[in-house]
Amino acid sequence: MKYQKWLFILILLAALMAASGCATIFSREDPQEKFEIAQTYAVQTRQAQDLVNTIVAQTMTAMPTVTDEPTPEDQTPSPAPVEPTLTHTPTDQPTETPTLTLTHTASATSSVPLIEVSVPTNCRVGPGRAYDIVSVLRTGKTAIILARHPSLDFWVIENPGGAGHCWVWGEYATLSGPIANLPVWTPPPTPTPTATPVSGVSPTPTEVTLRVSVPTNCRVGPGKPYDIISVLHTGKTANVLARHASADFWVIENPKGLGHCWVWGEHATLSGPVSKLPIWDPPPTPTPKATTGPTPTPTGVTLQVSVATNCRVGPGQAYGIISILRTNKVAKVLARHASADFWVIENPEGPGHCWVWGEYATLNGPVSKLPVWDPPPTPTPAVTHTPTMTPSPTPTPMPTETATPTETPTQTPTPTPTPNSPSTSQVLAWGNGDLTQLTARVYEEDPDVDIDRYSYAIGITPGGSDVVKWTETIQTQITHNGLQLQSGKAYYVSFQSRSANGVWRDAGVSNPVVDGSPLPAPVLMNLEPMSITAGGGGFTLTVMGEFFLEEAVVRWNGGERPTTFVNPKKLEVQISAADISSIGEGIITVFIPSPGGGMSNGLTFTITTAPIVTPDPAGIPMPTLIK
């Protein structure tokens, strides 16, 4: 610091010398003299500056090297920074995979097609297991639907785990919003199967296999805190890749896709050199998510409807449909509209609340004390989805799709059935022996009715949806896993069917299922006809009863006969002429293999003799009566 002060003083002296020279110049009177003097002093000033520069250079050369002492705020010396050496290492640029980026533009209150799932569902590159998994649509997550498959129950949604889009199966899905006018997209080409594990671990074949006696969840990790990826069903053999270090969990090849997952060994049977299996550490335990919503103030007012009524985001047809308040459901009322006949209720099929029209509603409780809520802003009537194609060697053409505004379903009673409308569905339900799964099949009484969609629910009352809310499907048989049923309590599966003309019919309700019981044994009630004359030709016998499946076979005295399934209450069987060639009886029974209930009771079919007919005497004249 001392030497810096001396340097400053020298520079200051030079400046003063120059200033003094300037002052002398402008004190002279004669301009010519001023000019000559100015030139003289300019030369002297340059000489003085050169002298100063020389002195400064000599002074700086004579200075020793000094390091500043640290200040009180900087007592810890910092290491001198190392100048980084930048070495350019050329790397191969990966080939860009063509992706489809979809930009969704919608206001917060726009009525858009939405999808939710009741179990975590894989979201894939295309519709089905042949396509790679992109992400997972988890329960409690709502995704926007962009398009649908032309025929199957698959939906194109915005990728819930990132950019772009992917396809989900609709088996466990609930749809809402303007679904009817969704564009139809053609799926991408079916990929060539590749054996590429999902994780960074490359599993080595171990020659160990595993089978389970009951369907078992296959999860991301060992135990219930981890998400379910798929289910290992009975009769399915899985290759075992590794084991848990201490617990009874096994890593297997994913039975429903690529990669691997963990199954519990409680109901498992293993074959092969189990002791040679590698030990894998489980992934980190996921943090539980708190999904509690706002707690509304109880009002003590309840509401029921005489016809199924849409429950919407706001009061009226301009708002999107969230769920449906059905006729057997009692809803808690939270608030009312200021002037119109609309009521805010707890969402009957999920969290939150929604608005219902009061045209077909009956309210109980202190209605006058209900708070008044303002409706949300009226949504924009149209939403535009603009797919943007990135460059690709083999692009799949995807047109820009614009969702045109459509009229949402009105809150009116079910229309009067037309001649092509379906009648109420018949439903059969059964369990698998535990409290986690229910299976059901739906049948139509009129096989000629053109059905395009079903909706099912599971509840503790006939028609109830308190266990599984109403879920649309195109399948006539559903299996719902991951349930938490209670022992000793009866559960019902309900199905609604929709005809091609858009008419939804009343729900058909299944038989009660308790403790995961299998389907009851078939019950025979009547035969048509009940008897026949011996010696005749073959005929069709109609068997009436309950709990019939397509697998049912009618037996005549223990022997199987050609059987036609009509519906769960009616079978038709072909009885041959040999069966009724002589007087006697035939015992009719029905056998249904699993998942049916086995052997039925028996009904007796009688083979009688022909009645004796006495002909009139031929050629004998009738006597004449004479008075």
Helicity, in percent?
A: under 10%
User: What is the terminal-to-terminal distance?
Assistant: 171 Å
By DSSP, the count of extended strands is 42
Mean pLDDT value = 74
Q: Helical segment tally? A: 2
Principal-axes geometry comes out as: extended
Q: What percentage of the residues does DSSP assign to strands (E)?
A: 25-35%
Helix/sheet category: mainly beta
Low-confidence stretches: 22-29, 64-110, 193-201, 289-294, 382-422, 616-627
Strand count, sense and barrel status of the largest sheet are: 7 strands, antiparallel
Cross-sheet strand order for the largest sheet? 4-3-7-6-5-2-8
Which value, in Å, is the CA radius of gyration? Answer: 43 Å
What brief labels describe this structure?
disordered C terminus, extended, mainly beta, seven-stranded antiparallel beta sheet, 627 residues
Structural summary, described in words:
With 627 residues, the chain is mostly beta strands. Helix content is 9%, strand content 34%. The model is unreliable at 22-29, 64-110, 193-201, 289-294, 382-422 and 616-627 (pLDDT under 50).
